[in-house]
Amino acid sequence: MGVLIYSALLISILVYFIGLFPFQVWSPNEAFYADASRRMLETGDYITPYYNGELRLEKPPLTYWFVVLGYKLFGVNEVGLRFMHTVLGLLLALVVFLLARLTGQSTRASTLAAIIILLSVPFFVNSHYASPEVPFSFFISLSLLLWQAYYRYKKFVFLLFAFLSSSLAMWVKGPAGFLLPAAVVSLYLLFTDPKELLKARYYILTVLSLAVGLWWHVYQLATHREAFLKVFFEENLKRVYSGGDPWYFYLVDTLASFLPYSFIFYLSLVWVLLRKRRELYFFFAWSLVILFIFSLVKQKIPVYTMPAYPAMAILTASFLDGQEWNRIKVWSSLAISSLLMLVSTFGVFYLSLPSYLLLFVVSAFLVSLKVPKLAPIYSILSFYLILLFGVLPWLEAYRPYKEVGEILKAQRASVYSVGHFLHSLPFYAGKEVNRRESPRPGSLVVFQWGTFSCKPIYTFRAYTGSESRLLKYILDVKRGKNFSDFGVCVAP
């Protein structure tokens, strides 16, 4: 089992970098970070993000800065766009490993926890996609790792950097970057060591952390007051009470989002309580606090609970590493791995992908026979390899954004958009695509068929839904749904 665990870790790291293949920018969400970061690099304004010439204050700037760093290393392209997110995903796995070791878990269990977080669906996807989710989860997890180090070794420097790490989380997604780790530590101490909560250093450092973490918010409040307050209300307050999802949304969503070990995670919670595994209580509190907080929020989005996943990975790995309840572990692992292998096999045939991709499924099946508890890891690896080598290249044929962008970039004329707006075009065109005004004579116009009258110099078909919902996007491409004809012309 040990050799297969370390082999799985090496394969996972390799697959992470394979995921950096230059697939085009995903629309609409990733396009915001791609273009706004490109503009930062061009203008030197790293404080206030602008997407397509429009003020964009939905998130603080740290995610954009990571993208800019990637651009400086690899150029303004898809690899540069996603490189730092992949690095942060791998560093998060290291943080999970260190957390597990710090709290007494074996090297094998700690390695398994790192693999579980690497291969959980939201982390794998968002580590290859420019968005705030992985940086946010990384800094929250780093903050809690540093707090654990302080609590065990009583060295103030660890506590100082724990608070500063939460400040960096605020640079990614605002006040939640402080509230989430603070809630986890507070609940844990409340039940295990309430006197620790009375120490003045926590409250002094809270002031420092908030001052460092909220500087961008103060700056934008002073310089773009009306726009900032509108966005801050919608992003941080309105979502708390506006939405219709049931309170148990995340309990159900976790079954899909924490694949391949979602069911075993729920078993691990029961095991921790029944066996009174005190060394795991911190991770128990961590996972449940975040799941509970976001269950109270009316508007529910699956990625919101990603900061709980590092703790969930450690609980799951510790449970799997033990010798108790082996029969249910084996049968649960075989059931989920069989399901994943069936889905992968069906996907190859349904999408008419090359049959050699099934070798990945066969390899996962052979591992399942040898070490059933590791079967989910190898089956999800085979699923991701089919995704990277089969599904995503197949999708690229239906994504004309780079080609259209090159046409727009080659002309000096200003560019307008009429009809459905293709969010990736400003990035690939390297300039603003005006969607607020009527096209001027002599300008280039990207128009949805039937929305503008002119003779096209180039025509193409494009998807009009959200590519961020990948499963729906794949099914729509297969069925030819939610596509529209577009053209590029010179405005008369």
UniProtKB/TrEMBL annotation:
GO terms assigned for molecular function: mannosyltransferase activity; pentosyltransferase activity
GO-annotated cellular components: plasma membrane
Keyword Cell membrane listed: yes
Keyword Transferase tagged: yes
Transmembrane segments: 7-26, 79-100, 112-129, 178-193, 200-219, 247-273, 280-297, 340-369, 375-395
A biological process from GO: lipopolysaccharide biosynthetic process
Entry superkingdom: Bacteria
Domain ArnT-like N-terminal positions: 13-226
Keyword annotations: Cell membrane, Glycosyltransferase, Membrane, Transferase, Transmembrane, Transmembrane helix
Location relative to the cell: Cell membrane
Coiled coil: none
Topological relation to the membrane, as annotated: Multi-pass membrane protein
PANTHER family, per database record: MANNOSYLTRANSFERASE YKCB-RELATED, UNDECAPRENYL PHOSPHATE-ALPHA-4-AMINO-4-DEOXY-L-ARABINOSE ARABINOSYL TRANSFERASE
Protein name per the record: 4-amino-4-deoxy-L-arabinose transferase
Phylogenetic classification of the source organism: Bacteria, Pseudomonadati, Aquificota, Aquificia, Aquificales
